Amino acid sequence: MSNFIRRRELDFLLYEFAEIQTLFEHDRYAHMDRENVDAILTTAVRIAEDKFLSHAEKLDNNEPTWDGETVHIIPEVKEALDAFCEAGLMMGPIDFDHGGMQLPHTLSQAYMGVFHGTNASTAAYPLLTIAASNLIIAHGSDAQKSTWVEPMLDGRFLGTMCLSEPQAGSSLADITTKAEPDGDVYRLSGSKMWISGGEHELSDNIVHLVLAKLPDAPAGVKGISLFIVPRYLQDDDGRFTKPNDVTLAGLNHKMGYRGTVNCVLNFGDVDGAVGYLVGEPHQGLKYMFHMMNEARIGVGLCAAALGHAGFLYSLNYATERKQGRAATNRDPASEPVAIIEHTDVKRMLLAQKAYTEGALSLALYAARILDEIEVTDDEQVKKDKLNFLDFLTPIVKAWSSEYCVTANRHAIQILGGYGYTREYPVERLYRTNRLNPIHEGTNGIQSLDLLGRKVVMNDGQAVRTLMGEIQATCDAAPEDLKAFAEQLASTSQAWAATTMTVCGAAMQGKIDVFLANSWEYLEATGHLVIAWLWLKQAMACDGKHSAYYEGKRAACRYFFKHELPKVGPKLELLSSMDDTCLTVEPTQF
Amino acid sequence: MSNFIRRRELDFLLYEFAEIQTLFEHDRYAHMDRENVDAILTTAVRIAEDKFLSHAEKLDNNEPTWDGETVHIIPEVKEALDAFCEAGLMMGPIDFDHGGMQLPHTLSQAYMGVFHGTNASTAAYPLLTIAASNLIIAHGSDAQKSTWVEPMLDGRFLGTMCLSEPQAGSSLADITTKAEPDGDVYRLSGSKMWISGGEHELSDNIVHLVLAKLPDAPAGVKGISLFIVPRYLQDDDGRFTKPNDVTLAGLNHKMGYRGTVNCVLNFGDVDGAVGYLVGEPHQGLKYMFHMMNEARIGVGLCAAALGHAGFLYSLNYATERKQGRAATNRDPASEPVAIIEHTDVKRMLLAQKAYTEGALSLALYAARILDEIEVTDDEQVKKDKLNFLDFLTPIVKAWSSEYCVTANRHAIQILGGYGYTREYPVERLYRTNRLNPIHEGTNGIQSLDLLGRKVVMNDGQAVRTLMGEIQATCDAAPEDLKAFAEQLASTSQAWAATTMTVCGAAMQGKIDVFLANSWEYLEATGHLVIAWLWLKQAMACDGKHSAYYEGKRAACRYFFKHELPKVGPKLELLSSMDDTCLTVEPTQF
Fold first, then answer.
1. Rounded CA separation A180/A216 (Å)
2. pLDDT tens digits, residue range A67-91?
């Protein structure tokens, strides 16, 4: 196996942490057993190494180009996507009813992580396509489903999401792309920015999901509608060969993530691009959130996987590279030791392990909630779990991308000068991962979403759920983990109290004061959640003994000793309603 | 002026913070006045913008190449270096006695920062050459000085430092490059790695300062000698045209900092490269530390300058880019505001300002200590100040590079998707700055140097100096800064107590326990020092009122509210003598 993937970790997270096997008892997943889970993982790892990792460096060195007519991408990308689709992985998380394999989301997220970690650029195409399919399945008409979903699931068509415009990135309220009714269809015109997978020859067609405004649309986000706008329309024979009025205006040249073509698209430069309305008019943003939420969890997972790949790579390097001697050894004639023997290198490895395996566990925990929603018939349970998932989503996205970029920073540091060169992959992982705090809603936006929306929705239900879950975990902690359980319980109580204090400003209508330190709030909440999941990971190791389990315990200890205490000052800052950032004037910088 | 430089900031740091004018009272700097300081800064800014910034992007896109015979670098680099030398800037910090301009180090560091921030890759050539000149001036023979220093100061020769080898990076004890006596000279053979400026056609000659071992050398760092090894030797006419036996083995291809050619050099593949011993045999590392210490402060300054350039660029962007509305404005039909109006953007600007102007102030404070050493005749004062400078050096290098990379991360985030593209400079600044935590001794090595050497040397004299300086600053704080002064005093006392606790392990001979959390110690100490300097900056604004001064106060407040409290948990971790990182076994990761 390569230095980018550790199968043992997948097995631990799936079976021992997320306990995927307990899902098989339900009708929905009765077709699953450990044997086919293992077979799917084996296939995924094989394809990821043979077809994705194998061209990751080449793709980074040869980003997509446009000659004015055609976008050129190295052929290995298409070969990788073909292998991915042939193995049925595109349809893994899709229900039987829609032609899929109806795998548990916990499993499909686990294998998607393998692809992200080995080659996030190429994995972005299926990530987007699966999410686009899910959106159409959830909100499209029967005709739309039958036209678009099947070719997407077998990879003949790939999907995109077209939200941003040059003047409207974080502020979707300000999009200006128009959709004029034209018989049964609509004619779209406008520019869309940052479109990943927006133009290429990797598939027979590209299914753009586009936000636009109808002529009678109210201002702001309440006037946004959603359209399917294919690159090619059906000709008289029903084949998708007729160009729609969607043109490439230019490619963006990114610091990393280079293999995912990213572009500006012009819709309707000639006579309006044909679009098909999804669902009701003016409800488009709500539908798009279906895709965005899935993509946000995908981004968090991708960040975790890129971080973990850097961890594994730097771990292997640290084991092989000899340099220096123990701090207690004064004999320069003695043999140098592997750098993994040095405490400060171990620190950077433990930090990477704690961040990235914490983030992976969070992504799989979120996936497991989705599965639990699928298998229950109890509407209240469904609602509560969805509520909790909504709460966790900005944390999955923003905490993971923030800390797993830091993990990649440590990986470079362990390799030293070598890590800074393009001959080693860790700088590529770092450059690539740096996109994750930006796209699918910047991390700042995520923090506003968490505090301004998710915390307060349903009268703070999600806060109570998290507190209850933490308490249940702490109560169940075995003797040797009681000290951590107490630390976690006490931090969670301080967090809940701070949440109350901060929300007090919202109740007084001081929205700007309420949100003034939203990023600190997200960081504190993220650390709390990850500490809780690390305690769960440590509990999953209870009674088990091997170097692997000791490592899990050490990483848990690292998180509780080195990371969780960072929450205290953040909560104090929040509780003090510090207004430093709010009150500084733009002219004062 | 470009978006990379703010002259007002230079003026503040030099005159109001470092009070450079008080140096002019001393004989050594009696030739200086405000007028010539201003003229030098004006010249530096002009050359930095016209000749350095102007090719920074092009250089990043066109890194040096080697065709097997010659290293090719875009011609703008040579033009920039010529302009730099013609303005006399290479000889700025050199004494009159050695043909220099004898400028205060405070001033020369200030203008070097301008060049680092606009184009660190090109600025690296003079940085290395000035440091190499200083080493030869300090430790070379008269003949060596007269041969090498003059052509280096006028830019005809450029300098390098050759320490690392493929098998010996952080561990110089293990270098294997040999030097055999051959009459008056030595013949060197061995490979040197990561040599910045190691091969190029930018100068008539390259003066390599090379660490190597004599045949009778003791093992380890006590057996290292230092040699001047030029690329070209003198021919019979005294001209440097005769190739020495130094050959380029290959170029390294870096993530950033691309314009500084970096290579593997082979010494003595044919008949031994001619080298001239500097000073006494086996004392080479001590001499080299002269250059390394200067380079470490240079690295910290460079990190600060790159961070500050990103701050200024993202500030300008945030002022111009319109997006979204105030949290309190629910009207989607209202005009969008500049993103600098958003609190979370202000947070990222304040963080950048606090980190980078804090780091700049630290670099200039260190430079001012050097000046104070130069102008005093009191040997005890000299010794104490040098001791304090030695203590601060790893902080200048490591804290600045750590936090100013984070500053660049914020700059990208403010620009969002645009910041992630190569069309905007912030990603280049980020990639370039990422080298600074690695070279000239990794940040981990700096933390071992700080705690294992600098804290304990001279019975903890530096700790007492810092405590005394902080106390003096706190005592002098005006009423409106008393709360920060108290917070600083109390943190410094906790820091001193923790230092005592941690050093207790050293006194018991438990060196590994003593050093187990050295990185946390460096971070805590760095935050304490930067908070102290921020208080000094705020005190320099006392009684002054304008948007600029209010901004300084806001950044100080940010540091005290958002950053200094992070020290508490680190000190608790250190005081607890946590051994998580020490005890985890290599097999457990």
1. 10
2. 999 999 999 999 999 999 999 999 9
| CA gap B387, B381 in Å, rounded | 10
Cα–Cα distance for residue pair B120/B128, rounded to 1 Å: 12
Judge contact between B92 and B111, C-beta under 8 A.
Answer: yes
From B347, B443, B515, residue closest to A343, measured CB to CB: B515
Tokens in use for B529? 């020092």
Residue among A188, A268, A266 at smallest CA distance from A224: A188
Query: B263, B409, B581, B582: which to substitute to probe chain A, counting the most A Cβ within 10 Å?
Result: B581
Contact between chains at A349 and B405 (C-beta distance less than 8 A): no
Summarised one tens digit per residue, pLDDT across range B360-412 is 999 999 999 999 999 999 999 999 999 999 999 999 999 999 999 999 999 99
What sections of B541-579 are H helices per DSSP? 547-558, 567-575
pLDDT at A290 (0 to 100): 86
Res. A2 pLDDT band, cuts 50 70 90 = confident
Pairing label, strands A240-243, A157-162: unpaired
Collect all residues of chain B within an 8 Å Cβ-Cβ radius of residue A439: 417
Q: What is the pTM of this model?
A: 0.98
Taking an 8 Å cut-off on Cβ atoms, the answer to whether B561 and A580 are in contact is yes
B233 min Cα distance to partner chain A (Å)? 30
State how far residue A399 is from chain B, nearest Cα, in angstroms. 15
Q: Which amino acid is at B122?
A: T
A412 contact residues in B (CB cutoff 8 A): 434, 438
Closest alpha carbon to B317 in B415, B251, B447, B387 = B415
Please, what is the angle between helix B34-47 and helix B75-86, to 10°?
A: 170
Q: What is the rounded CA–CA span in Å between residue A113 and residue A123?
A: 9
Nearest to B343 among A164, A561, A582 (CB): A582
- The reply to whether residue A343 touches residue B582, judged by beta carbons under 8 angstroms, is yes
Catalytic residue numbers of A, as ranges: 440
Q: Give the residue carrying structure tokens 């030099």.
A: B14
Residues 6+ away with beta carbon under 8 Å from A161: A128, A131, A132, A195, A196, A208, A209, A288, A291, A292, A295
For residue A6, the model assigns a pLDDT of 97
Whether the per-residue pLDDT at A536 is higher than 90: the answer is yes
C-alpha–C-alpha distance, residues A194 and A124, integer Å: 13
Beta-sheet strands, E only, within B44-148: 65-66, 71-72
DSSP string, B234-271: E-TTS-EEEEPSEEEEEE--BSS-TTS-EEEEEE-SSS
A-chain CB neighbours of B323 within 8 Å are 168-171, 174
Q: What's residue A489's pLDDT?
A: 98
In degrees, rounded to 5, the angle at the alpha carbon of residue B43 between the alpha carbons of residues B54 and B9 is 85
Nearest CA in chain B to A347: B581
Which chain A residue's Cα is nearest to B323?
A: A171
Q: Using one digit for the tens of pLDDT, what is the confidence trace for A447-499? A: 999 999 999 999 999 999 999 999 999 999 999 999 999 999 999 999 999 99
Q: Is the dihedral of CA B344, A124, A54, A69 positive or negative?
A: negative
- Residue A335's nearest CA partner among A346, A343, A323, A353 is A323
Asked if B346 lies within 8 A of A584 by C-beta distance, the reply is yes
Amino acid at B333: A
Contact between A434 and B423 using a beta-carbon 8 Å cutoff: no
Q: Do residue B174 and residue A319 have CB atoms under 8 angstroms apart?
A: no
Flag whether pLDDT at A321 surpasses 80: yes
Over residues B133-151, the mean pLDDT reads 97
A519 — pLDDT class (breaks 50, 70, 90) = very high
**Residue B328 scores a pLDDT above 90:** no
